[in-house]
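Let's practice the habit of predicting before peeking. Look at the sequence and jot down your guess about where helices and strands might fall. Then scroll down.
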Amino acid sequence: MGNRPLEGPFSNEFVDALFRYSGGVAAVVDVAGTILHVAGDTDTFFGIASDQFIGQSVFDILQSSDLERARLRWRQAFESATPLPSEDYWVQVGDRWLCLRAVVSNFLDDVRMGALVVNLEDVTGLKNAESARSTLLGSRSALVRVSSEGDLYSEICHVVSGDVAFDLAWIGLVDESYPLGVRMVATGGPVAYFDALEKLSTTQTYHGPIADAIETRKIQVIESIAATPQTESMWRDLALAHGYNSGVVLPIADFGVLAIYSKRANAFGHEVVQVLTALVDDLAQGAAALRARAERVANRYRLESSLEATVRAIATAAELRDPYTAGHQRRVEYLARAIAADMGLAQDETTGIGVAASIHDVGKLVVPAEILSKPGRLTALEFEFVKGHSQAGYDIIAGIDFPWRVAEMILDHHERLNGSGYPRGLKAEDIFLGTRILSVADVTEAMRSHRPYRPALGIDAALRELEIGRGTLYDPDVVESCIGLFRENRFEFQLS
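Done guessing? Here is the structure:
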């Protein structure tokens, strides 16, 4: 079927020449949307002759998601005396999907035309590049959001496959124990293809762009999956069976690949690949950063576990010399942690305060045992020996590289807001907040427990002492938190 002859001065030859020399393409379409005539260099523009369009409905070649918008624009064209603003539509031409920018002009009242004229511009490359750039921005946002390498891969696949130009994406890490040489770790898109690909990967004769990308560490662009060589027929047939017509496989540094598929042929032009190359560069850097962070976290965990074991050993040694205060340090630790958490301190700060509290009396190792266990009142000289345990504790701990101010809290846990404490006579804000919390927890636990020189006074007496010394000896906010924990039944000592 050829072009329908146009009547009047607008002959087929005239219209063809007009658009051929302008470099454009236009379609003459009737009210129902049937294509009557196509003018211009369609061989270059579409890759097929113009007469193959004649008699088709423009609505039959449109992407389904564009249909409603196109029909609305068509109705608007009937009522407009001037050309409508351009709009972009995806259309299927042969085995390719093209994005065409269309301007619709109304010639229905023109006796020489009696139709709508659609001027077309191919913006496929532009649209694909826009999609790639959008995907790049989305991936960079994902880099900020995620906290683990696995989450990063999943987010990237989700972002890529969620773009209008790309239908499926997956990431694999190089792993020689897998038949394909790569282990799939994240996917985005229909799962049926991934399941089939994994089964295919176990075939000894399998070969394709994924293997090529891994072996050569070079980007593999598949402009037309249907045109891939016979040696890749197994992969080609699988991809075509699932509706994919083009693809790209991009190496991720030296440890993985990102594979992207599109149902449109030629979806991965030069500019698109350039943008996607930037994406995998970002992905490689992000993965490396997350790996390094994970290693730092693991190292810190190992260090903290080692320090915790050291702390427990020190605490046990101190309590063995002073049976009357056995368990005191642990109870102080639990209360200090509870106060810190109640005051809204960060977990890391709370941990540091707990560590200091658990060994705050380690300096008693240097105090003679007979003084520690003396049942009566201490002499002035004996009390000076006891007071020396704060400095001794600091000297013992100062050489350990804690990530918190542990030695300082041990040194100052007997300091008081009004400067009446020891060993340095510090006042108010000169005393670290963690130390102020430790001091209140220490006083509270000591007063409610039995000592050689007096019976246990109980928790009520301890809380009254805090209220009396609030603002003069003890930090008022810390006191408020401590009293609230007990009176609101949000804390109780678990160890006797």
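How did you do? The two ends are 99 Å apart (CA to CA).
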